[in-house]
Amino acid sequence: MIDPFLLLATESHAEGEALISFHFDFLESNILNLAILVGILVFYGRKAIGNILSERRKQIAQAIQEAEERQRSAATALAKEKEKLAQAEKEAKRICEVATERAKTVKAEIAEQCERDIARLKETAASDLSSEQERVIAQLKKQIAEQAVVRAENQLKAQVDNNTQQRLIDRSIAQLGG
């Protein structure tokens, strides 16, 4: 930027004009004004831009620091949660083992109870069978006795006539004491 400015200054000095002069020609004065404006911006703007950039740098550094702090806290929280997860997995495994053992115990108890029930049912069935057998035998004896009485009556009716019947009655009365 300074090179074109020097170039213009030396050209105008070579033509015999003053070093700094005002030209009202739009095209020539525009370049000079632009050079002066750029020079002023560079001289005074350096501090302002430097301050702005410095402030921005501080903000970025602070944001980075906050992000790093959040990252550290997140890593700590992650480690805690992983530890909790590991404990939960251990607890779940322990619960599964306890449940498996309890299931085995309950299964054994149920099998034992079934065996006792089967034995009791066998005893009950045997007892029922025995009582039923006794009932059937008693019923058969009763039927046999009834049939025997009926046959005996039939035989007596067929073999005993009135004379024989009268003699039996008299003999029975005599035996009774009469």
SSE arrangement:
Layout: H1 2-14, H2 26-159, H3 162-176
Task: Give short descriptive properties of this protein.
178 residues, mainly alpha, 91% helix
Largest sheet: none
- Give helix and strand order, one letter per element, not per position: HHH
In percent, how helical is the residue content? over 70%
What is the gyration radius calculated from CA atoms?
66 Å
Given the structure, what is the number of helices? 3
Classify the secondary structure makeup into a structural class: mainly alpha
Instruction: Give the N-to-C terminal Cα separation.
Output: 175 Å
Poorly predicted parts: none
Shape: rod-shaped
Task: Tell me the quaternary state.
Answer: single chain
Question: What is the strand tally?
Answer: 0
Structure description:
With 178 residues, this protein is mostly helical. Helices cover 91% and strands 0% of the residues. The protein contains 3 helices and no strands.
Q: In summary, what is this structure?
A:
The protein is 91% helix and 0% strand. It has helices at residues 2-14, 26-159, 162-176.
